[in-house]
Structures are given as C-alpha cells and as structure tokens.
Amino acid sequence: MGALGPPILFWFLIGSGLGASFRLPGLAAASDAGVTYMQYFFPGTVLLIVLFTAIFSTISVIEDRHEGFLQSVLVAPLSRQSLVLGKIAGGTTLAFIQGLIFLCLAPLAGLSVRPLGLVYLLTMLGLVSFGLTGLGFFLAWRLDSIQGFHAIMNLFLIPMWILSGALFPVSGAAVWLQAVMRANPLTYSLAALQSTFLVQGHSLAPAGISIAASLGITTAFAGLMYILSVATVREG
To answer: How far apart are CA 125 and CA 123, in angstroms?
Structure first.
C-alpha cells in the first residue's frame, strides 16, 4: 500500500489539477483525439510505482547490515552474483506485480493496448523494474544510513523520474532541459511504456524516440545496474 498509494494519489491529484490547463506539444494528433492529461500521466505513474517499490525493497539492505543478517549472507558459500541477483530479482518481482496491478486501471482511464503491444509492455515493465531495483541496490549498498538513502531519493531518484517526461513531454521543455532529459535513461523507459498505450488509435509515444532506442537503452541500463551492483558487492 505504501508503494501503490502515493503514486495513485499523485496521478489523480496532479492529473485532475493540470488537466484543464496542460497541453501536449508534439502530440498534436493525439490531442485531436481527445487525450487528457491523466491519460498522458498514466505511464509516468506506472514508472513511479516501480521506482517507489524499488526504493522500499532495497532499503532493507541497510537494515540487514545493521541487524547483522547481511554479514551472515556474505560469509555463506554462495557467489556475489547470486547474492545480487537474488536481491534484485525479489525487488523486481514486487515492482512488476505492483505495476501490473495499476495497469489494470488503464481501461478506466480510457487507454487501450493491442495484444502484441501488451507483450512488449510487460517485457519493458520487467526490464524497468530490474533496472530501477538494481539502481536502488547499488545506492543502498554504498550507504549506511536510512536517512541518507531518503536524501539520495529526494535529490537524485525523484528528479530522475521527473526528467523522464512523466510530468511533461520532452518536446515541451526548454532546449537545455531537453538535452538533460534525453541523457536520462528513464526517458527511454517511459517512452517504451507510452508507445504501448493507445487513445482512440493514437499512441502516446513521444516524437523522436524510436522503439529500438527505447528497448536498447532500457536493456543496457538494466544490465549496467546489475554489473555495477556486483562490482560494488565484490569491493566489500
């Protein structure tokens, strides 16, 4: 409930508050089809749910260190890769399931997904869940304070989500901000999710970001987070 509640509340309140005043530049065709801001914000909310779940699941790394459980795991006869993969896979499963629960609300928001698009959507949801959980694990392993982890979340993870295009499209931002957003891997993860949703036959996918780029960068991000996490654990 802690991971699902705040994003759903944000989706409803922000979507309702900005719905009448927000326009979607770069999505003219979709706007003509009657796309609302709550529909545009829906994929970003899915991404936020995954992010919150990743944070909640990996913060236990710090708690395990304080309670001595982590030290017991480190001396167990198992590889560092297994330790990292097990922890990230557990968080990924939670994030995937909670994101899937929210996706069930898509028809109520007036969004539809084609059968093949659903396969792609679930694949991307799994990759995004793995990547964000890996990022959370990487940060949590290097920190010894839960308060510090929350500070990193507010300073780094939440702005990373905001600059993914979840709240406003890349094409509607200032030129310098567009460059920052295009350097953000979550921008491509969000674009992958947006490309699967349809409003009266029109896709929410942003212009200028191809499906191949979205899939490739999201996969690379997930793989990089796993590699960095394993390297961090091996360092001690």
So the answer is: 5
